[in-house]
Design brief:
The complex is a heterodimer of chains A (about 150) and B (about 300).
Chain A: H1 2-10, H2 19-70, H3 76-82, E1 91-93, E2 96-104, E3 126-132, E4 142-148
Antiparallel strand pairs in A: 1-2, 2-3, 3-4
Chain B: H1 2-15, H2 20-72, E1 77-85, E2 88-92, H3 122-125, E3 130-132, E4 135-136, E5 157-159, E6 162-169, E7 178-188, E8 191-202, E9 209-217, E10 219-228, E11 237-239, E12 242-243, E13 260-268, E14 285-293, H4 295-298
The chains are: A alpha+beta (about 150), B alpha+beta (about 300).
Chain lengths: ~150, ~300
């Protein structure tokens, strides 16, 4: 009898997995999978940003071309945009509600602190400034600036 | 004997493997968990594929738009002829893009085709940046519908416009005396819906040189508008066709080329097979557009400009 008992005890180290162990194992697996899953939204967000930037470039070009065409005979229209010391109130593009545009004579993106001769920071140059629209991003981050003459 | 037996059972219980019930419970938990993980991953992958399709479509559209715009914006050549034909298909993307309860009810023409008295007041959709107390962007179109306002061309039928440019180099060579460039949606490499750039280069004492290059695949709609400069500034606006060969019957100042060209591309961004999204079936698209001036016209002293 004693012999039998010992035999079973000997099998102790080879016993099956307990429920707790299974759950711990699953928790570790889940942590791993969640890490992988968490990367996907970031990738999608990065693609989204690239998409908006591409649209922003085309829309800024459209606005600048429109203004050059609509300029009056003596150039007052373009001059008044050049002389704007702060951007106009952003207007949301009706066909691209994630983006809005302002006109300005000064830069928002480039302050010229690092290099005062930076042409991107120069005041008195007409600009189209593209931001994320308020309904899309409450911070209304500036994503693109286009200077034109 | 009885003592021995009890102690044997208790030791056995402590050391035994999983019971069938435990195994089933564990399997149930694991399968519930794994199916949750599976569903999440499938959703993530779908979202990723859709985002990827959109990004790819936008990138292709942008490259194609830049290429077309470059041909209109000739810097060291002259556009001697421009013929634009407007073709409207009987279907669009099959979706109510502007949420007015109607599907594909407009055409790309720079006008408001779907405004009804029930729509918001024109002022609400009149979009202009305010430059000064008394000066707005697109000043001649304040309180009037035009491209750039909401309600204008927001939910349109697809177009298959065709445009041909004849270009004279500023210094003709025997290799290029003149060339024509034509843009249209056609078939390339057994694929439909390809935006093509067809060129024909006329050379001295040789046969013309033909070429066709695909600019973008999956192009469902290609639309152009032309800004007619042959009117007083306040009466200028977009037209859907252009034929510079008829310049002699244009209104004064009879400029043969438009002042600007508006380019609009709708590209498929659908991840489903093409046959499921063909001809009027709802299809996910991205729309990219831009505008380019024809420098010859806007630099012409006769181009009617406003006085502000």
């Amino acid at each position: 009898m004693n012999g039998t008992t010992r035999q079973i005890t000997d099998h102790g180290p080879n016993k099956g997995i307990s429920l707790i162990e299974v759950l711990v194992g699953l928790a570790i697996l889940m942590a791993g999978l969640l890490t992988v899953a968490a990367a996907f939204p970031r990738i999608i967000a990065a693609q989204h940003d690239a998409e908006l930037l591409t649209m922003a470039a085309a829309l800024a070009q459209m606005k600048s071309e429109e203004i050059r065409r609509d300029n009056d005979r003596s150039g007052v229209y373009l001059d008044r945009i050049r002389n704007l010391t702060e951007p106009t109130v952003p207007v949301t593009f009706p066909h691209e509600p994630r983006l809005s545009y302002s006109l300005s004579g000064v830069s928002v993106l480039h302050t010229g602190d690092a290099d005062p001769a930076d042409p991107r920071a120069m005041p008195g140059v007409a600009r189209v400034i593209i931001r994320l629209a308020p309904t899309f991003d409450p911070d209304q981050d500036v994503i693109y600036e286009l200077r034109f003459n | 004997m009885s003592c021995d037996s009890i102690s044997r059972i208790s030791r056995t219980e402590a050391d035994r493997g999983m019971s069938m019930v435990e195994l089933l419970v564990a399997l149930t938990i694991a399968s519930a968990f794994l199916s949750g993980v599976y569903m999440t991953f499938i959703q993530i992958i779908r979202a990723h594929d859709a985002a990827e399709a959109r990004r790819e479509a936008i990138r292709n559209a942008r490259v194609a738009l830049d290429q077309v715009a470059d041909d209109f914006k000739q810097l060291d050549a002259v556009i001697s002829q421009l013929v634009g034909i407007d073709i409207v298909l009987p279907f669009g993307d099959g979706l109510d893009n502007d949420g007015d309860g109607m599907i594909d009810e407009e055409v790309v023409d720079g006008l408001n085709n779907d405004f009804t008295p029930d729509s918001p007041a024109p002022l609400n959709s009149d979009r202009h940046a305010q430059i000064d107390d008394d000066l707005f962007e697109r000043p001649l179109f304040v309180n009037r519908f035009d491209l750039g306002d909401a309600d204008v061309d927001e939910d349109v039928l697809f177009g298959r416009d065709l445009v041909t440019l004849r270009i004279l180099p500023s210094v003709p060579t025997p290799e290029v005396i003149t060339k024509t460039v034509r843009y249209f949606i056609g078939e390339f490499d057994n694929q439909d819906n390809v935006l093509l750039r067809q060129t024909e280069i006329f050379r001295e004492s040789q046969e013309p040189l033909f070429g066709v290059a695909p600019l973008a695949f999956g192009v469902l709609s290609f639309d152009l508008l032309y800004w007619d400069p042959n009117a007083a500034p306040e009466s200028q606006g977009w037209v859907t066709t252009w034929n510079s060969n008829e310049a002699h019957v244009f209104n004064p100042p009879q400029l043969s080329l438009p002042a600007s060209v508006y380019l609009r591309l709708a590209m498929t961004a659908d991840t489903r097979p093409e046959e499921l999204t063909a001809n009027g079936q709802p299809v996910d698209t991205i729309v990219a557009w831009t505008m380019v001036n024809i420098e010859q016209t806007i630099n012409d002293g006769n181009f009617p400009r406003p006085t502000l």
